[in-house]
Design a protein that fits this description.
Length: about 190
């Protein structure tokens, strides 16, 4: 996802949070949806965690992000991106550095507000609903299928789906576990000797 979309999601989260009425839980509905989307938009394409020391490709076509430590690692994208195969084209993205810091701050504000209790209740209710849906689903047939598909360990669709289904409380926890970054420090420059 490009940084413009991430920024728009962040602004929507902020606007929704600031317009929530603490005595009316129905005003939190959009927040429950937007927080996992924002978390997913700031996900590393290698480790599937919130990006740390965000890097992005310098090629304009590619909009994938990775952590500084994950640079050069095998991406979980399916299908593979042909534009970001070369790890040498990834550089620190200052816009993303600031955006991740803002994500952490808004999550800290939400966690310290009265909305947090509603988030806990929402997550518990959602967990019960998902468990009820699983128990109501028909059992799979015991007969094996004629053709088995190979299991994919890290299919991007699975990662995206699982990230969007994580509890909102976990989104807040992921953000608060991020280390603080000094945005005034510049990334180290590498001098080439010829």
């Amino acid at each position: 996802m490009d940084t413009e979309n991430c920024t728009n999601l962040y602004l929507q989260v902020c606007q929704t949070f600031l317009t929530c009425k603490y005595d009316d839980p129905t005003t939190f509905d959009d927040l429950y949806k937007l927080l996992p989307w924002l978390r997913q938009s700031l996900t590393c394409c290698v480790c599937a965690n919130v990006i740390v020391d965000p890097m992005s490709s310098t090629q304009s076509h590619c909009q994938h992000f990775v952590c500084g430590k994950c640079k050069g690692g095998k991406m979980i994208l399916r299908p593979q991106c042909s534009w970001c195969k070369d790890a040498e084209v990834f550089e620190t993205n200052q816009h993303l550095v600031v955006l991740v810091m803002c994500f952490k701050k808004i999550c800290q504000l939400i966690a310290s507000s009265p909305i947090y209790e509603h988030i806990l209740n929402y997550d518990q209710q959602r967990k019960k609903e998902l468990a009820a849906m699983k128990s109501d689903s028909p059992a799979k047939s015991d007969t094996p299928s004629k053709r088995k598909r190979p299991q994919r360990k890290f299919a991007r669709t699975y990662v995206t789906s699982s990230l969007l289904n994580i509890p909102v409380q976990q989104v807040l926890q992921d953000a608060m576990n991020l280390k603080d970054v000094d945005i005034n420090t510049q990334p180290p420059t590498v001098e080439c000797k010829t």
